[in-house]
From TrEMBL, chains A, B, C, D:
Residues 147-305 form the GFO/IDH/MocA-like oxidoreductase domain. It holds the Pfam family GFO_IDH_MocA. It comes from Micromonospora acroterricola. Residues 8-127 form the Gfo/Idh/MocA-like oxidoreductase N-terminal domain. SUPFAM superfamilies: Glyceraldehyde-3-phosphate dehydrogenase-like, C-terminal domain, NAD(P)-binding Rossmann-fold domains. InterPro entries: Gfo/Idh/MocA-like_OxRdtase_N, Gfo/Idh/MocA_oxidrdct_glycsds, GFO_IDH_MocA-like_dom, NAD(P)-bd_dom_sf. Gene3D superfamilies: Dihydrodipicolinate Reductase, domain 2, NAD(P)-binding Rossmann-like Domain. This is Dehydrogenase.
Length: 414, 414, 414, 414
């Protein structure tokens, strides 16, 4: 830890999957990186007293509260870390910004474009007062992803022709998997599209430095009715044999109550990027055997790169400027000290895991806040992702017709 | 070779890339398989006397001719093998069928739906007289592909949810690569779409046993003007510094004459299959580093399969009915005697190559002809592929709007 | 964290590469696992006051000391964690055991068999008084490795015929890489053999449940003289342009002083295991391009497994009892909740890294100490590894002649 | 085919696995390559009249004979191709050379060093009369292997430090697999060692340009008694329920007769090469799941290469002179026209198979014979392999003690 005495007192809202991942990162970041400020895990917030108390103890937070408004109103909190489902992002983040707190908000930024626009406007206003905001597209900080962006930025791929992105999971293939919050539109906003599709939209725009301008899309819900859940954590859940969910479930005597799946199981779309690239995107929770397979391939006139999140320490790079008989996809083990973020970790070849992307994110966030600069991705960047999600949804509703992505500045310009 | 004295006298039209591949297969097939008839490489046809004479000598054909009508009119020819560019398929195949010859026609069946419909009708009519016809979608006979179909047919994948197909090459990334016939619409019909996209359309319909019902598509020509070629063979070519091509090239004093690229460099589309699967397709000649990367992944409710033509001896199979802790994609080396077509070849683990798919195709074709059954894929099957290509083209022309694939029976019904 | 109030106060000696890795694990273990005791990072020890003070602050230890004897003598320390180079393991561990402290000692257990025997005897004696000891072969706790052991133990591999193990690195290929302590026999005991060869000896004996009974070996030092180091951390170092190292370096006016490399750069040996398997082992720091490539393949009469530490979340398993046409190496992503150690981490497909093996090790150590059971690997297990290392060294000295591994019980029996 | 009228009339002895592979190559070579002579498949020889007649018909030979001495004595045979088991190589090849025939002899050259020395001496004597001889280590002609040699020869790997070679199969893991000729010392000479170990010895010496100078070895026969075979072809066989084999089998009333396995199931050895490299070799028929896994990795001071025969179209190349952050193993698809042997085949990415290595071998053999140069590997090269096999056998017999490889010139010098 650096010798600085500057402390950033963090208040985190939510303690499930993302809460645990963020906690591990807040706990680790100053132990690994020399930074101009120290994060203090000051306060955790959740609605259930018993559960949040347990979480505070287990995850190592100094205190807990059950009211996020309390968390925001406290003077001894500098940073608000929003780890709740998407339906509460806007309300919490807006309040936090209004209270002058720096905000780190999980992705997707919001459940609707309108919310995202409001958040972006609030962030821009707060910025003038030195308040920082960032959206948690953590995969930007996977070293191999950061390196892909550098290769593109350095011109190593030449003119980008193709982007091929898929984020594939299989955790709801079983039709008996219950109707958890991620399968309910009012909580999650959308299904695979917003949950994992948002990641590949942001990641490919980040890596290429290009923005998606239009899309043609299809979405699908393969299993339209599911049992109501008894409880869930992370992506796992158990089925509840009784009761209903928000009154919408069907109850009969022969089995567990069920309710309608109101989000997409899969979304696929073709897109164009403003630099001329043609792109395909696919997000699905029905890709049997694919657990967390975020895969991206980018082909340019001078080279190509390939990335797979299940092998996140590796980057494949094809350099078409090498002697032709020796060209091939090089499997680069992105674990050397000179690779992004890696000098702080272990010797070459000693791999890191999923959670490290959060530690890297906290590193950059802390540095930005402490030095008075703006971290990326900004809320405006996240709004752009939201606008793509919105175009995808609209295209799917009008028979896949080509649909322009609405400009981010439209509302701001008003 | 079997003890049969029955001989099938083959006349082949064309002697370039496909002609060489077919010759290797005709030469080999009876040396490897016991079949009810022997193929005789009787006659080869090409327009240039010197070149076709050389080809006959080099590839091992008994005789040659420069007139395909001569080839068809001869009594001592049983089979006509059409290996020319797509613009002459219909004329040659229709004449051959009319002359009572069995026809093997390279893919795509034709350059237009109208031609393909006419050929399909002619083939149906000829069938009544015992004349057989087949379209050369050779990849169906890659053992791993045949095995995929068997797994699906046996219910091992359950309900198919996703098809993910791409056929990627990179041989025209260089904008100085010349304007060969494959880049001219009047010769080739279309670009990547018909040349390699047709393969993945046929392959995925074959494997899944489902038909594509509708598409939403985008096509792109990245490099719109190219130098005129001096000559080409296979996929390679050299640039001609002088002259024009069909009068369409531009000539100036500063460089080689150029002409417009009139086909797509890449085509991407989303599709639905009649069994409920959602599919993505991509065909491109601009995927730097991908030489012949036909890749297919199919996800079903009980399992998944993955295939890559660059590793055509391998099949990845994920069986979701195994104990969950042991589930994983199994790399099956499809080289055992019990695998399709393989008992005739080498011991386990001794791999085969691209050309073997043609030998397997000739094996099945000879067997069908000799035993009086119909080989697959039929012209009707190939027409269905043509109809998908047509729907893709139409969708791309109307802003990617969802476009139904026209029924194959429509014209026949008239 | 569990509700227990039981605390294990840890004192760690050493703060370099292993010290950092252990710190991350002590810090994390109770945040992830529910355990019957909590680890407290109480005291860290190093010889240099400034450096150890910095390390305490950075790594998060409550206090520091520069005298390991002080650490051992304190009443408020329950566990001594030995992370120093091998030449001080015996002295520190023996003193700690004598003081009644539970001991976790890094591998290899010692630099000589005599030391390892003494430590094993002391551990056995201390055990009677409820004092626990463990050697830090952390790779046993990589989930895929633990799973391999379970597969073997469950009979899934049948009779084991072959073990094929290599641990390959390349960090000293450059002859200008300096003479760090790991290249000096008096500090490190041996070179690649003891540092990384020890890992594959332990790992393969652990997985197979068999012990190496004899070896035939060759060792090699490719670069016999190297520049003296200015400083080093982890596996990296810089060359010192002046000064000597322990008086053994050569000094001249033309370049940096150099000294002799007194350990092996590579060691290869053939071995037999007591269950009948034939094995090959290779440890090298000269395998260009291999960063941390610990690779193990085990072939049994019913199946095979393959593991690669650079892809530590994956296990390849070949099950020869499956239908023969479907047999293949399955790539199992060992990230499911039902896989060893994984239920506490992230959702399926979200990978872990190198450091997690230490967290798992601390989990098992804490549980054993808190519940009064003996953790594995014991000092006796580590002595067995030391005896194999010794047999390898002796075989290499006598022209590779077959050399029996000395029984572990020999000295104990006296 | 070239316009040459020069013909090489080939007489082949043997028609099993190797006979079929050679036939496919003789049939194909002039159809693919322009060569100064044409091979004519003139005469095939086998002991069983019916079987050899069938083979001649099936494989496409003009005539057959049951007496190899007849084949050698005929004036209309230019080349003798020896495809029999190793016990008859010496007799046939010596007679053929004495008769002035060019000889292509399958590997291993002979079953004993004495035979190999005699053959080498005869080949040297015949060479003076313009008679050519070659041993069939076909894997030298796999394009990726040839390319490896070129990379080494061009200095791209620098000083070679490590060779890691294994040839793994699993076709006799089942103890009920019968006692085919490859498991009988008097026929096969040795087991895995001579059959597949010989390949990796030759291949690594070829690629590195270095010779093995000494070895330390262990061999093992896991299954010591097997059922007598009813018949076998290739590597497959069926068990005979009656009769004995050479009188050595045991007969009882409870099962099929069995006989002793008189060769090794597996051989492992450590070796040194004359350029300073340290090497490990493993040949086994008990590596469950490995069908034909010839794997070689070579590490040099400037780079490394990796090859796997099951993916023979690929070469992995690590170039340590590239920018360090971009270093990685490049998967080169060795299918470009500029790669060795490949310009005659298909477009890039269209892979070749196992049999093509024989076609390449015949290409080089025909060219050498027609142009009056000596093909490689010579009998002297093959003798060197035999001497290594001999050293391995001797080392294994004397407790793995280091054993020098006898110089090839020793006998010649007498």
């Amino acid at each position: 830890m650096s010798t600085t005495d500057k402390e950033l007192r963090v208040g985190m809202v939510g303690y499930a999957f993302m809460g645990a991942a963020h906690s591990q990162a807040w706990r680790t970041v100053n132990r690994v990186y020399d930074l101009p400020a120290r994060a203090r895990m000051a306060l955790i917030c959740g609605r259930d007293t018993g559960k949040v108390a347990d979480a505070a103890d287990r995850l190592g937070w100094d205190a807990y509260t059950t009211d996020w408004r309390d968390l925001i109103s406290r003077d001894d909190i500098d940073v608000v870390d929003v780890c709740t489902p998407g339906d509460s992002h806007a309300e919490i983040a807006l309040a936090a910004l209004a209270a002058g707190k720096h905000v780190l908000c999980e992705k997707p930024l919001a459940n609707t474009v309108a919310e995202a626009r409001a958040m972006t406007a609030a962030a821009a206003a707060a910025q003038a007062a030195g308040v920082r905001s960032m959206c948690g597209f953590n995969y930007r900080r996977v070293p191999a992803v950061t390196m892909m962006r550098q290769l593109v930025a350095d011109g190593r791929l030449g003119v980008i022709r193709h982007v091929r992105a898929a984020y594939l999971q299989d955790w709801i293939v079983d039709p008996q998997f219950p109707l958890v919050w991620r399968l309910q539109k009012d909580r999650a906003g959308s299904g695979a599209l917003g949950d994992i599709g948002a990641h590949i939209i942001d990641l490919t725009q980040f890596v290429t430095g290009q923005r998606i301008t239009g899309v043609s899309a299809v979405t699908e819900t393969f299993v339209k009715e599911r049992p109501l859940p008894a409880g869930s954590s992370g992506l796992a859940a158990t089925v509840d044999g009784s009761g209903s969910l928000d009154g919408s479930g069907s109850l009969d005597g022969n089995g567990p109550a069920t309710g309608p799946v109101t989000v997409d199981d899969a979304a696929v779309f073709v897109a164009r990027l403003d630099g001329g690239a043609l792109a395909t995107y696919e997000a699905s929770r029905f890709a049997t055997g694919r657990k967390n397979a975020l895969r991206v391939e980018i082909n340019g006139s001078l080279g190509s790169v390939v990335f797979d999140l299940e092998r996140l320490n590796e980057l494949e790079f094809y350099d078409a400027t090498r002697p032709s008989a020796e060209q091939g996809f090089s499997r680069i083990l992105v674990t050397e000290g000179e690779h992004p973020y890696m000098s702080a970790w272990w010797p070459p070849g000693h791999i890191i895991g999923y959670e490290h992307s959060f530690t890297h994110q906290m590193r950059d966030f802390i540095e930005a806040v402490a030095t008075g600069s703006d971290p990326a991705p900004s809320f405006a960047d996240a709004l752009q992702v939201q606008l793509v999600l919105d175009a995808v949804t609209r295209s799917a509703e009008i028979g896949s017709s080509w649909t322009e992505v609405e400009p981010a500045l439209a509302a701001v310009a008003v």
